């Protein structure tokens, strides 16, 4: 017994001291996700496309229509529109009564977007914080179509769905107000667009699928293009080998698929070994000299306007051959790869000049310009008396190779310098001391070229005088009769290349094969992402006409009183007759018109609101909307004006929503169409009697 007791104690100590190897993500609820929507300001405009209710005040019925939501001075959230005017504590949550309904939010950072699921608006300092709580799989509808494109091959989209699902799953820990944001800080999310059927299919055909490594759900990073080589996480994000050990499935490897994809962004500057006059700008030529601020670059556009895309960038003092002037733009020649192309620079940042004799050796290739400048600096360091960099004539590049590695010792093909040797000549002074003399003998000069600049703190900067700052993998490659300065990799380069996945799918690879290529040793794991996505709408504990916890009862032998509407009211029914036909127990009724003004006389009309108040008349317990079939304009009668309004709606000339739209469904089909127009017309012609 004594030995057994000691053994038991040892086991307990072992359990306490030795960490168990299990994946906490496996225990999480993956049915829905919370996404912070990027908005700004304290006032937002929404359109509900279906029936909603307010979670914090479920007796308030939100019909389809337009609403304004704003933060008040005392940090409450105020919703107004469509006969609703309510101020709710510091948070308001709109919940659809059916999961198919969408909420249209105007003015997000992504534009005007439709969202499925719940939408929470919270007073947060000087603005409204907006969080979309949505079914996990339906969240992915709004990620896959935008992180890739709906036009991509299905198998590539399926690979994207798995990686996006896994990336999100790792961040669904239930802490804080939200799990992710809707930008590239995490993943781009743009709500719901049913037209993106291929992306939706990719999500559904991989439902629940993520990647796991040794039993744990893994971080499935991805980026647009890796430049032909995947990168170690310890290189991209720091931490080196120790960081790499945290992600053993994220290895560095050659990616021929990314390179083969013509859509992978690549920038190339070609320079010849033999530098002929074809690459130079010589005496008496018109040029454009870039005149930006120190350290700033200027975009070369494909056309005369900022709406045209950029071909590349040029730095201060770059000279470009002039072609013509078009308004506020100079048309110039720009070296792009091995080709010389027409481009445009804005006149506010450029000067038109004519080359002078003392500046007779100028080059339109930005690489040759840098070589000339670096050679000039090197010769000056050696004590040579050369007045101007344009006194140097480049003759031949005798050697050029990659220099310092960005990530030393890792095998990465990303470099920060290039090393070269240039054969050149330079102008010598005339023997009489005036003007230029003969060219010197040819001289070879060793130079270093900067592919990636370094900050004072030692970090590398993507901004560059001529390289595109959005690309981050730079090197020198041999080319026919010359060299290419190459700039690739759009994104961090870790994990899956989206362009590589696209190419693999185009070549017939399936999504599992794509994932196996980019995530070494990882396997598919299927999570349970099913479950309720919406809270149950409020139900009456006493009677089907009453909201929970309220004891009032509204009764009518003549009119039909449903959950949130009152129908079967004949046209031209007076307010007095209406109240004579309605009985309220334990409460009182008040009538309001469509503008929210109290109504005590006249006729009942579509859009009127009947509010049920408590006994002291201070609290609104619930409200109902009056629907009179055929009374579309809300004047209480059925006339030619209603027919014309319905006609304009069907022609797309005007909008109908909320109560007027419901009043248009005179056939009671659940949809408004040409048959409703014909039935309304027959009623006005006296051919039929439109019954309520």
TrEMBL record:
Q: Which GO terms describe its cellular component?
A: outer membrane-bounded periplasmic space
Residue stretches of biased makeup (Acidic residues): 537-546
Q: Which positions fall inside the SH3b domain? A: 286-354
Q: Where is this region: Disordered?
A: 528-551
Which ranges carry the Dockerin domain? 625-692
**Biological process GO terms, please?**
polysaccharide catabolic process; sporulation resulting in formation of a cellular spore
Q: Which PROSITE patterns match?
A: DOCKERIN, EF_HAND_1, SH3B
List the SMART domains: SH3b
Which molecular function GO terms apply here?
Answer: hydrolase activity, hydrolyzing O-glycosyl compounds
- Write down the superkingdom of origin: Bacteria
Which NCBIfam families does the UniProt entry name for this protein? SpoIID_LytB
Q: Which PANTHER family does UniProt cross-reference here?
A: AMIDASE ENHANCER (PTHR30032:SF4), N-ACETYLMURAMOYL-L-ALANINE AMIDASE-RELATED (PTHR30032)
Q: What is this protein called?
A: SpoIID/LytB domain-containing protein
The major lineage groups are: Bacteria, Bacillati, Bacillota, Clostridia, Eubacteriales
């Amino acid at each position: 017994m004594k030995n057994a007791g000691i053994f038991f104690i040892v086991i307990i100590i072992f359990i306490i001291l030795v960490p168990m190897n299990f994946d906490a993500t496996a225990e999480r609820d993956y049915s829905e996700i919370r996404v912070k929507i990027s908005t700004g300001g304290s006032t937002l405009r929404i359109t509900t496309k279906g029936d909603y209710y307010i979670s914090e005040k479920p007796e308030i019925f939100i019909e389809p229509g337009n609403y304004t939501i704003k933060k008040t001075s005392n940090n409450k959230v105020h919703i107004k529109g469509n006969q609703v005017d309510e101020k709710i504590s510091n948070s308001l949550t709109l919940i659809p009564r059916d999961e198919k309904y969408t909420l249209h939010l105007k003015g997000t950072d992504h534009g005007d977007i439709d969202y499925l699921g719940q939408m929470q608006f919270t007073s947060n300092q000087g603005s409204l914080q907006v969080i979309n709580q949505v079914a996990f799989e339906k969240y992915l509808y709004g990620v896959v179509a935008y992180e890739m494109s709906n036009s991509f091959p299905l198998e590539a989209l399926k690979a994207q769905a798995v990686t996006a699902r896994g990336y999100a799953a790792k961040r669904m820990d239930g802490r804080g107000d939200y799990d992710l944001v809707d930008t590239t800080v995490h993943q781009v999310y743009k709500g719901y667009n049913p037209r993106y059927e291929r992306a939706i299919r990719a999500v559904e055909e991989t439902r629940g699928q993520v990647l796991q490594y040794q039993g744990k759900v893994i971080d499935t990073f991805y980026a647009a293009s890796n430049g032909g080589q995947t990168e170690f996480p310890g290189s991209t994000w720091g931490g080196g080998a120790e960081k790499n050990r945290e992600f053993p499935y994220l290895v560095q490897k050659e990616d021929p698929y990314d390179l083969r994809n013509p859509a992978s962004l690549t920038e190339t500057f070609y320079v010849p070994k033999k530098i002929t006059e074809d690459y130079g700008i010589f005496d008496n030529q018109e040029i454009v000299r870039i005149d930006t601020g120190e350290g700033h670059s200027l975009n070369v556009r494909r056309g005369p306007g900022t709406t045209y895309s950029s071909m590349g960038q040029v730095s201060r003092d770059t000279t470009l051959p002039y072609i013509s002037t078009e308004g506020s733009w100079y048309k110039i020649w720009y070296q792009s790869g091995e080709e010389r192309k027409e481009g445009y620079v804005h006149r506010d940042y450029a000067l038109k000049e004519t080359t002078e004799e003392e500046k007779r050796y100028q080059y339109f290739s930005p690489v040759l310009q840098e070589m000339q400048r670096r050679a000039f600096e090197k010769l000056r360091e050696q004590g040579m008396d050369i007045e101007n960099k344009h006194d140097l004539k480049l003759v031949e590049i005798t050697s050029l190779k990659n220099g310092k590695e960005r990530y030393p010792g890792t095998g990465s093909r990303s470099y920060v310098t290039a090393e070269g040797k240039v054969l050149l000549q330079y102008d010598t002074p005339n023997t009489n001391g005036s003007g230029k003399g003969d060219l010197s003998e040819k001289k070879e000069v060793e130079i270093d070229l900067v592919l990636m600049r370094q900050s004072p703190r030692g970090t590398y900067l993507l901004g560059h005088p001529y390289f595109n700052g959005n690309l981050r993998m730079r090197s020198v490659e041999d080319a026919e009769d010359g060299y290419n300065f190459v700039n690739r990799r759009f994104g961090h380069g870790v994990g899956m290349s989206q362009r590589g996945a696209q190419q693999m799918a185009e070549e017939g690879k399936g999504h599992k094969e794509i994932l196996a290529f980019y995530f070494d040793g990882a396997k598919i794991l299927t999570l349970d992402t099913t479950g309720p996505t919406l809270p149950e709408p409020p139900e009456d504990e006493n009677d089907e006409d009453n909201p929970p916890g309220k004891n009032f009862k509204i009764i009518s032998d003549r009119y039909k009183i449903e959950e949130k509407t009152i129908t079967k009211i004949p046209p031209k029914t007076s307010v007095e007759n209406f109240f004579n036909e309605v009985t309220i127990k334990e409460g009182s009724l008040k009538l309001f018109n469509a503008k929210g003004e109290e109504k005590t006389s006249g006729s009942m009309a579509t859009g009127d609101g009947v509010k049920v108040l408590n006994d002291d008349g201070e609290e609104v317990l619930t409200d109902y909307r009056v629907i009179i079939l055929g009374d579309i304009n809300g004047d209480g009668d059925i006339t030619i004006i209603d027919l014309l309004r319905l006609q304009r709606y069907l022609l797309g000339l005007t909008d109908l929503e909320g109560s007027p739209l419901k009043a248009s469904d005179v056939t009671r089909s659940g949809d408004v169409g040409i048959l409703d127009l014909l039935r309304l017309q027959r009623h006005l012609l006296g051919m039929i009697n439109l019954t309520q």
